[in-house]
Amino acid sequence: MKKFSLIIFILALILASCSTNEEEKKLTNDELLSKLQKRVKKTESLTLQSDNETITTYDKFTTKFTQSTNSEYDAINKSALKIEAESNHTKYNVKSVIFNLDNGDVTTYPKAKYLNYRARNADVDYFSSVQSQIVNLTHLMQDVVKPTINDVKQEEQSISYKGKSKALLALYQYGFHQSSMNQIEMFNDITDLTVESGSYNISYNAQFEPTSLNFKLKVKGKIKNKPVQMIMNQTTDYSKFNRTNVQMYKEE
Questions:
Q1: Mean pLDDT throughout 148-161?
Q2: Which residues pair with 235 in a beta bridge?
């Protein structure tokens, strides 16, 4: 009888220990956000691949813009960006491009012919800005996840949100840098942007490194007082945190 009681006691201790461990592992939304923020702040290099589809309705025309983006980024002196862009409307012509920056040396495909150094520097500034925007995960955590954290749902190594928070406009801007729509001047001048609906899902690994971001947004605004609506879908994969050895892209 004593042996039986001892076995029961030991089992109870084991179960209590497992329960305690589970409680320790379960983080609040704020605690999880803090761990994600701390991890992405330490990002020095990153590999990214995204696919963006934006359906835009403006001035009686509905246009589908698509873009596949591949990026390898080193915060010190190297970056490689490959953009494959399409539009199904001849009125909005978009181009695919490869832009490599290696210790200040620029190579592009198709090869660019600059009128002067100012034109070259404008390209460098533009593509460098795009590159830095799309790998800026600190911005995502601070301006998108943090304002919506109270309504975020935790699942196994992922968080998700669905709603109309104004913070989703920051997510729209993040997607805009990976949408071929951004090549069209008028779509860079949209005013009065508001979110009609939106959702996002972020997956992360055991080291709290984001591994994917998927989102869908329905946003409206105005261009010269005419209404414009965008439905944006994007899938994004992140990999090789601080292990990216930048390889320059070549024309296929």
A1: 96
A2: 51, 214
pLDDT digits (tens, 9 = 90+) for 70-89: 999 997 778 999 999 999 98
pLDDT of 111:
79
Task: Strands of the chain (E only): list them.
Answer: 45-58, 61-74, 78-87, 97-102, 105-109, 153-155, 158-163, 191-204, 210-223, 226-239
Please name which of 198, 245, 193 lies closest in space to residue 221, comparing C-alpha atoms.
193
Which residue has 């869908």 as its token pair? 216
**Structure tokens that stand for 189 in this block:** 């001048």
User: Which position has the token pair 């696919």?
Assistant: 51
Closest by Cα among 39, 246, 63, 52 to 134: 52
CB atoms within 10 A of CB 29: 16
Asked if 39 and 206 touch (Cβ cutoff 8 Å), the reply is no
What percent helix, strand, coil does the chain show, rounded to 5? 35, 40, 25
pLDDT tens string 93-144: 999 999 998 988 888 888 777 667 777 778 778 888 898 899 999 999 999 9
Task: Name the DSSP letter for residue 116.
Answer: S
The strand pair at 61-74 and 97-102 is best described as: unpaired
